[in-house]
């Protein structure tokens, strides 16, 4: 029997399971990984609306991480919504303390698909630079990457961030280039990943699923570009699985 890689998601709980940690777990399972989950927030939301967010205490988050790393080998972690950038920084440092080689995929969720603001960018530029230096991959959408450095152009922001970490720019919110994703590596190369499946409909939590699928493929030993390519193909299958806002993970 083949052993599956362990993958951890640190994210919020969505009762509709379209987004957040339960969507991540479904993705990990479908892609033949064993998924662990640490909850950062309990939310009141559905596929169409977001009403409230109750943040989990950082001490509880750390204790859950601690017991998992004590008992299991975890080399890949996907991070979703976090209360604020200080908590994010603490979590990343704690993960690296438990496993200095852990690869972190950060999905910087600033707003829900129903336009709920999770938090404002209250992080100082130097602190944000430290976060970028400690993660393996950042997966913002077009709206999110514009918010990081308001005084820079998109091109300048991408060049700056990709000098510190790999960037997978999701194209779901990109006017005129909808569905066209781009990968910018720390080594200075870039790749465009064009959509293949045109029979798709919008899904709640699609960004979460895309980031977690890339993490899953990385955990299986695929190189970064191949992981991003396979992750994109996976999310397209979810997007075309039905016509509702909640996608299926078994095709």
TrEMBL record:
GO biological process: thiamine biosynthetic process
Record flagged with keyword Kinase: yes
Residues of the signal peptide: none
Domain Pyridoxamine kinase/Phosphomethylpyrimidine kinase: 14-245
One CC-aspect GO term: cytosol
Gene3D superfamilies listed in its UniProt record: 3.40.1190.20
Pathway annotation from the record: Cofactor biosynthesis; thiamine diphosphate biosynthesis
Superkingdom of the source species: Bacteria
Cross-referenced SUPFAM superfamilies: Ribokinase-like
InterPro entries: HMP/HMP-P_kinase_dom (IPR004399), PM/HMP-P_kinase-1 (IPR013749), Ribokinase-like (IPR029056)
EC numbers on record: 2.7.1.49
Molecular function GO terms recorded: hydroxymethylpyrimidine kinase activity; phosphomethylpyrimidine kinase activity
Keywords recorded for this protein, A-Z: Kinase, Transferase
Pfam family, one: Phos_pyr_kin
Protein name from the UniProt record: hydroxymethylpyrimidine kinase
